[in-house]
Design brief:
Layout (H helix, E strand, L loop, with lengths): L12 E4 L7 H7 L2 E2 L3 E3 L14 E3 L4 E2 L5 E2 L5 E9 L2 E3 L8 E7 L4 E7 L3 E9 L6 E10 L3 E10 L10 E9 L2 E8 L5 E10 L2 E2 L4 E4 L3 E10 L5 E11 L6 H15 L1 H19 L2 E3 L2 H16 L26 H11 L3 H13 L1 H10 L24 E2 L6 E2 L3 H4 L3 H16 L2 H22 L1 E3 L4 E3 L17 H24 L1 H11 L3 H13 L25 H7 L25 H7 L5 H11 L10 H11 L3 H12 L10 E2 L2 E2 L5 H15 L3 E3 L2 E4 L9 E8 L2 E8 L2 E6 L7 E5 L2 E5 L4 E5 L2
Parallel strand pairs: 29-33
Antiparallel strand pairs: 1-9, 2-3, 3-4, 5-6, 7-8, 7-13, 9-10, 10-11, 11-12, 12-20, 13-19, 14-15, 15-16, 16-17, 16-20, 18-19, 21-30, 22-23, 24-25, 26-27, 28-29, 30-31, 31-32, 32-35, 33-34
Helix pairs in contact: 4-19, 5-6, 5-19, 6-9, 6-10, 9-10, 9-11, 10-11, 10-12, 11-12, 11-13, 15-17, 16-17, 17-18, 17-19, 18-19
The structure holds beta-D-glucopyranose.
Beta-D-glucopyranose binds next to loops.
Length: 762
Amino acid sequence: MFENNLNSEALFDLYETGYDPEQAVTTGSNYMFGNGYMGYRGTHPDATKEHFAACIVSDTYDTADGKWNELCNVPNGLFISLSINNNQLSGFSEDLNHYKRQIKLDTATLCNEFENDQVKVQVERFASLDQLHLLAMKYVITPKNQGDANLVSGIDGDVWSINGEHFQEFRVSKEADALLMHTVTKELGTDIYVAECTLIDGVPGTADSLESNEKQAFRKLSIKLSEGEPLIIEKFVAIYSGNDTEDPKSAALQDLHEAIQQGYQSAHDRHSLKWSELWNSYDIQIQGNDRDQTLTRFNLYHNIIHTPTHALLPVGARGLSCQAYQGAAFWDQEIFNLPMYLYTNPAIAKNILMYRYQTLEGARGKARKLGYRGAFYAWISGKTGAELCPDFFFKDVISGRKIRNHFNCWQIHVSPDIAYTIWRYYEVTGDKQFLQQYGAEMMLDISLFLMSRSFYNVDKQRYEFIRLLGPDEYHENVDNNVFTNYQARYVIEKTLDVVGQLKAERPDHLQQVLEKLDVSEEVLSTFEDMVRKIYVKVPNNDGVIEQFDGYFDLEDVRPEILKGRLIDKSEYWGWPNGVAVHTQVLKQADLIQLFVLHDDFDQELLKTNFDYYEPRTEHGSSLSPAMYSIIASKIGYRDMAYKYFVKSCTVDLYNTNKAVSGGTFIGGIHTASCGAVWQMLVFGFAGFSEHHDTLYFKPSLPKDWHQIRFKLHHRLNFVHVTIDREQIVLESAPENKDALSIDIAGNTRTLEPGQRLTTVNH
Ligand code: BGC
């Protein structure tokens, strides 16, 4: 069904029937499974570092080469390889009668099948959602004749690592039936334990021999095969790092022991039950186009598996799919990953924002270092919130010289984007406790940063933000980017609202926070002044808003023309010398991004600006197409909205984005576009928005879709939304506490708990 031999049987799965080694990086990411604690790449069971096998574990940040602080790829405990009558057999073999690799999205289970004239092998693997440190595998060999099977099963510590070796030593021991590998990270000395057990027909396998070298520990097992009698091998692996617990060794052995007692099937059942609960919150059902249904679930699935929910840790821009982008959070986290949670499972949205609260010190440190007050959140934020983005992110592939990009010091919109999200969280959930206890401090500190970063233009009597990067990363060192200035003004205004709320409701707490942050009355009046006087550009005579000062003076070309100007196709297009720098070509949605975040712009303005910026946007970032899809839906460009929906949903499946840019590996799962699928469907096609406690719907479904159905949350009340061509049906859950105000096509109604409201879809 899909390009690259990707198909679906049940609309909850993807499979391929042929292996393409050229696509190994991409397919290993696409077929991966995970549980927010760890991500295991969807390769074959005998894959090694050459095949980009990886098990990326959250909270294992370490710097191997002095430059890139990233998550570790830990020793691979699920490694197993098979020979039949001394011939190696695996999914990589070329002479197979049958081959299938399938990811079952409903239970996050990877299935591999391969078969030759002698045996059929069926493998299942998953990372338990019930026990986050546990990996499990079932490996079934069905012989077609008698023969000898030789298995090598154990832990492979010789792993793929993109920026150097992270481990300084390996120690292997045998603990009862388990193999245990202990390694220690190079920079921080973090202990990592991987415990593994292999069971043959339910009992721990007795190895002919145990082989271990510096980084690997393998058992060799020889087994006689009888025709038609399946041999069942199960593997359990438990992983802990010293950041998870005081005694990671005991924890790993304990979990392994419990898994063995429990058995594979029961472990899988418990895991599957947890997954069905998740899908109950997050699924969006589409009728009328099976491919789009599968694409949607594929993206929702990835947004889920890469989100750590067990601790206050970032959602990485490439999640847990590999080490690219350092396993760290960007603005993507709040603006792309979080909205799905906010409207379906707000506890996760809160967790993400609490991570930002926990990392405030990192943001304060960054502001101080650059000479500002307040909280300047990191462009690339790991465990502590300290800036992880190196000064030299890309290199000029023609000269080989490093490029000094300014993502880490001029891209200031990340701070107001976080404050914006805090306010959105409050509006949708009504969670005053969070807002007052944590949000207020973050918002005040962010506003303080914005104040100290602003420039008061005395001649023009206005506050400006100069020398920055907006979302469009190709243009550095620009002034008055509309997105940034607008977000700053909005956030400072909302901060003053929070101050007002605290003054009335918790004056002592307000006093404490103001004192802690050294915010005086004078600062608060400057905030007020800023709300009145931050410069936000207005449309020109043609109704177009200029993205930043001087943008209209740049060469007006199209991305296709720029492609023709490249000397090397992996060249970086942006600062200082890239092909886009002196042109109006944008890397990604910028003003259009602002329109997604705020509903204050009229249709005419949206349309004029969409028409202007759309042909000039390269979509060089995977974040971009989804935003164009949402605005296209809002302005009635139905086909365009759908075109961008498909583009966004297939970024990973069709491997459409650059895996290497300016010499830096940026492959792996694009979690932002995965999160954005939810937004395209709900904000775009369903036309949902929420203001002042009223839920608005203005749907515009793609041509061949008959229906979409999803669940929404608003202030602890749940609503099932079903939209088809004829009608919009809203069902309020019987356990809801409040009546909800609903607006469809300008008609406002009240939806009582347990009530069903049917409206004509115009
Ligand atoms: C985009 C940024 C984004 C980052 C991580 C870059 O290519 O331009 O907006 O935050 O990737 O996804």
